[in-house]
Amino acid sequence: MINGPWAFQPYEAAGINYGVAPLPTLPDGKPMSSFLGVKGYVVSTWSKDKALAQQFIEFINQPQYVKARYVATGEIPPLKAMIDDPVIKNDQKASAVAIQSARAVAMPGIPEMGEVWGPANAALELSLTGKQAPQAALDNAVKQITMQIEAMQASNQ
């Protein structure tokens, strides 16, 4: 199963015993990549106290507070400096996410990405279960994604 850190809490709440590992290395020796989504903080143009808002963002992103947030919530730290912290390094889930994040590509922040997941997941399932050859499954997914994005864009005009 391929999933992300957002799934950890629901799996645990359901009593599912699971492990986490980075995606494997491909036959050409390169590690598999994935998309990386991130959370961000912004200071609004209309903020009455931009300097204070900026200070707050800087404060909550200091390593000791990022670590405290991880311990309290399980939210994987977004700071590269935290990867080697023993609390992260010794946590199988957090360590695997940190390794995979270093191999990831930033996910485009566009509405069209919503049209990718269904066909991509179907292609993965069809190929892994042997119901369809990988290339055929991926070709079909690309066609479906393209059609859905074109329909989405046409409806927005």
UniProtKB/TrEMBL annotation:
The protein's gene is named: cycB_2
- Which Pfam family, any one, appears in the UniProt record? SBP_bac_8
Query: One Gene Ontology cellular component annotation?
Result: outer membrane-bounded periplasmic space
Family statement drawn from the similarity comment of this UniProt entry: Belongs to the bacterial solute-binding protein 1 family.
User: What is the designated name of this protein?
Assistant: Maltose/maltodextrinABC transporter substrate-binding protein MalE
Q: Which UniProt keywords apply?
A: Signal, Transport
- One Gene Ontology term from the biological process aspect of the record: maltose transport
Presence of keyword Signal: yes
Record SUPFAM superfamilies = Periplasmic binding protein-like II (SSF53850)
What GO molecular function annotations does the UniProt record carry, in alphabetical order? maltose binding
**Species whose genome carries this gene:** Klebsiella pneumoniae subsp. ozaenae
